[in-house]
Amino acid sequence: MISQNAILKGKVSSKENNGEMPFVAVVLNEKQMIYTDSKGNYTFTKLPAGKHNLVFQILGYDKFEQEINIQTDSELVTLPVIQLLPSSIQIAEVIVNIPNTSYSSKFEGSNIVVSSKEIELTKPIGTEEVLKKVSGVNVSGDMGISNRLNVGIRGSYPRRAANILLMEDGTPIAPAPYLGPEAYYNPPSDRLDGIEILKGADILMYGSNTMYGAINYITKKPPVKPTLGLNITAGENGYHSEYLTYGGTWNKLGAELQVLNKSIDGFQDNSSSDIFNTSLKLYSELSKKSSFYVKLNYHQENSKASYSALTPFSYKKDPRQNPFDADDLLTKRYAVDLIHNYQISDNMILSSKVYASQFQRDWWRQENTVISASLATNYLKEDIISNRFTYLNGATFGPDDYIRVGKIANGKESALARNRIFKFGGVQETFKYNIEKNSFKMNLEVVAKIHAEGFNNMEIKNDSSRFARSGTIVKDQYFELYSYSGVIKDKFSYGRVYFTPYLRYETVEMRSFDKLAISKMPANNGDRNYGSLYTNYSSLIPGASVVFNFMKNEKNDLSLYTGIYKGYTAPTAEVGFLNVEDGKVSAVTANKPANRTPETSINYEIGLRGEIYKSLLGTQLTYFNNNIQNFYSAGRNEAFQTLGAVNISGIESTVLLNLHKLLNTEKHSLVLSFSGTYMQGKVLSGKLSDSDVLKAKHTSQTKEELISKINAEREGYHVYFAGLGGKDSLVNGSLSVSDFSKIKRLDIDFGDGKIANNSIPYLPPYILNVGFSYGFKGISIGANVNFVAKQFTDYLNFNNETAEGAIGSLDSFKTIDANLAYSFEGSKNKYLKGFTLFIAGKNITNEVYKASRLHRLSSGIMPGGFRQMNAGLKFRF
Q: Which residues pair with residue 837 across a beta bridge?
């Protein structure tokens, strides 16, 4: 008998970015096949001496074949890392590899990539839990479960992430990316395999909002090996999640069905949420020159989602209380992506993409008002107090103690529906042409896209019961948009220098229909566009990036990079139909047509990134500066009536310290991580209107603060008292607190000699994250501390808060997350091998804090920081 005790082991990575590649099929001598593990490792045992043939293959990559020779039957053979090349017809949406760094080298500008390993370790209940660790990102809490994303990038206003381009697998996912970019849909974190955050000139390849940054959610792809998967999670606050998958690859066809059901009772009363999400994915290499991909998705949410939040008094008494039991949100989303790649020749590829989405949002919200807490008994009556305001029992009230309650008319509470249907679709053609000669390379990419949107906006008022779900239509609008765009990107490489110019051109047509008003026009002649408003604009958007890989050897790989580009934010349906003359904004009239154009910026950045001493240290350090012009949409109920200018700058840092590299072993993994952001923002010019500032319930402290601000920079505040005959009268000179009640109107003027040093809202000067993770065999342990500095929530930079909670700064806060998991991946038992147990703690110190005032007068204080402890199991077979 011939002894067979030799061992053959190795690792597979992607040549594109050195990322680890799990689930690669490794075939030995055309007989035995195994798959690489989660780190790209493979091992064959009990091999005889002699020659052997190895074949490495996975969909989307070129097959690689290698002959090896084992000298003795007891030899341990460790092969060099096998690097697979992406196939020329590879579809980016099905790439399966894990970058070793916190960034991707496929992007020229600054970027952060959250890997599947990070998501797997964190076990998040929502994407905000992951994004808060990313440098340059500020998370402003809402319900705490990320169903509606509220994040800012590099100083963008965070409400509904409306100024950020959101994508899933490279396709926009906002309800209507131009007309209604608010993130009422956000992919469940259970479905994600990674997240790309783009902040440099690369964003010009995607449009439509390019001023601040983009988030691209990467969803899980069909596995190579046919696999049944089940994730079950349960925890505090009634949380549970069930995620079932089945898929695999058969010959040249990959497919997977994903089904998710998750629910939570919520962190406050009347804040439950139920989500159902299912996706079907198919990928096929039709031939050596052609590949095809399709993704179908259906998403449904039923939530007790409230717009109404807390006053300072109710927050102090009980931050978990929410009396609005008649707020109901129902959303449904249908989406499809189709992609076809065709290799025209060895150096030319044509990629065709068709995408479409429909998003329905029916949101019944109880109408609310703010009253003095001392009047609650008389206003609400005993039955309402005993059912929904028990926290008031036995309380004593001061003059500034207010509560938010349901508005009562004719003895009844009422609700208002804000129902919307968004539809969009597009066709995109991408042509790629590559040239390589000696040390010179050129990669040309040309994109042409046609995109269309439709948006129905209806409001329905009921006054019979807060639970009634029908009533009188009080608003009925329809908006439509057509966008035609083209982008050219040409990357030139010579040695270690990379220069990439970009040029994007876009022309947009928008039309608005007030269907209620049009229905009352007797002269309506049946023309489709009768009574509508029309506007259009065109934008030429250039940019450029330079990367210099100044150090590259066996131990170090470091690059300097810089970029400059023009950013822009498209006018939405809400603010797109306005007239602008000499920078002054007004409503449309017969003589003043809609002509508002996008907000624009000149953004530049410079940074250093790379790996030091065999990946012991990985880092990315970036300085950025964004100069914004034509600024109108300042924030919730804040707008520049004379268009403004803003500067935002800062430093972003990300560091990964792979301490296990010092041990020179793959058995242990010990990583320390740090991300830090320093930001400052300043309004340079513009006249602002804040419709909430005088309607708020001001305390003696906020009255004194406002009067002090006015007197300190008197030229920046145009104060009007109520005059005779209803005409407001401009007042000059210093004011006293006793004048506060006389103020009828306040215009806020920024610039030199006016208001000179105010920060923009929701821009904490610094955000810090420190984390660690340790892995040994099947054990994984991790923790992260997130600290966010004090931040203002309005352009006047109020420190004190008003009595209803709409205005005021947010104190600094910190959260601590921790997790523990054990995987049986190394088990010889085929059933245990795919089994993982875990426990994950969110905000484990349970330090509740004021997370945001995102909806201002409509809501007040949104609390955050509630603890959530989860445990679960993961099974793959």
A: 822, 873
Stretch 56-66: mean pLDDT:
87
Q: Peptide bond before 519: cis, by omega within 30 degrees of 0?
A: no
Q: Does some domain include residue 140?
A: no
Structural contact between residues 66 and 80, judged by C-beta atoms closer than 8 angstroms: no
CA dist 813 and 790 (Å) reads: 8
The closest alpha carbon to 146, from 864, 669, 869, 873, belongs to 864
Q: What's the CA gap between 841 and 818, in Å, rounded?
A: 5
Helices (H) and strands (E) in the chain, counts: 6, 48
Query: Is 569 strand, coil or helix?
Result: strand
What value does the mean pLDDT take over residues 644-660?
A: 97
Segments forming the whole domain that contains residue 36: 6-86
In terms of residues, how long is the chain? 877
Q: Which helix (H) or strand (E) holds 195?
A: strand 192-198
Q: What angle do CA 570, 573, 574 make, to 5 degrees?
A: 105
Alpha-carbon span 25 to 251, nearest angstrom? 12
Q: Domain containing 858 — which CATH number?
A: 2.40.170.20
Which string of DSSP letters, residue by residue, matches 112-158? EEE-HHHHHHH--SSTHHHHTTSTTEEE--SSSS-SS--EEETT---
Reading the block at residue 678, the tokens are: 């320093």
Instruction: Dump pLDDT digits (tens) for 737-772.
Output: 999 999 999 999 999 999 999 999 999 999 999 999
Euclidean distance between CA atoms 242 and 261, whole angstroms: 5
Q: Which residue has the tokens 């849909």?
A: 185
Exposure string for 559-573, b = 16+ CB within 10 A, e = fewer = bebbbbbbbbbbbbb
CA end-to-end span of the chain: 35
Q: Look at residues 63, 86, 109 and tell me which one is the last residue of a structural domain.
A: 86
pTM: 0.95
Q: Which two tokens stand for residue 87?
A: 């196939």
Tell me the pLDDT tens digit for each residue of 714-739: 999 999 998 877 788 999 999 999 99
Please state, in angstroms and rounded to a whole number, the distance separating the CA atoms of residues 27 and 436: 32
Task: Find, among 289, 335, 98, 276, the residue nearest to 195 by Cα.
Answer: 98
- Sign of the dihedral defined by the CA atoms of residues 320, 323, 326, 329, in that order: negative
Q: Total structural domains in the chain?
A: 2
Secondary structure percentages of the chain, helix, strand, coil, to 5: 10, 55, 35
**Chain Cα centroid distance, residue 405:** 32
Domain presence at residue 599: yes
Q: Which of 214, 211, 213 is nearest to 601 (CA)?
A: 211
Distance of CA 359 to the CA centre of its chain: 18
User: Three-state SS string across 455-519, please?
Assistant: EEEEEEEECCCCCCCCCEEEEEEEEEEEEEEEEEEEEEEECCEEEEEEEEEEEEEEEEEEHHHHH
Location of structure tokens 């050219």: 488
Which residue(s) pair with 223 in the sheet? none
CA atoms of 324 and 304, how far apart (whole Å): 9
Rounded-to-integer distance, Cα 444 and Cα 489, Å = 6
DSSP structure class, residue 303: E
Q: Distance between CA 795 and CA 763 in Å, rounded?
A: 11
Q: Is residue 107 part of a domain?
A: no
What is the structure's pLDDT at 95?
A: 64
Domain finish residue from 86, 112, 127? 86
Q: Is residue 372 part of a domain?
A: no
CA distance 541 to 676: 30
Kind plus residue range of the DSSP H or E element containing 285 = strand 273-287
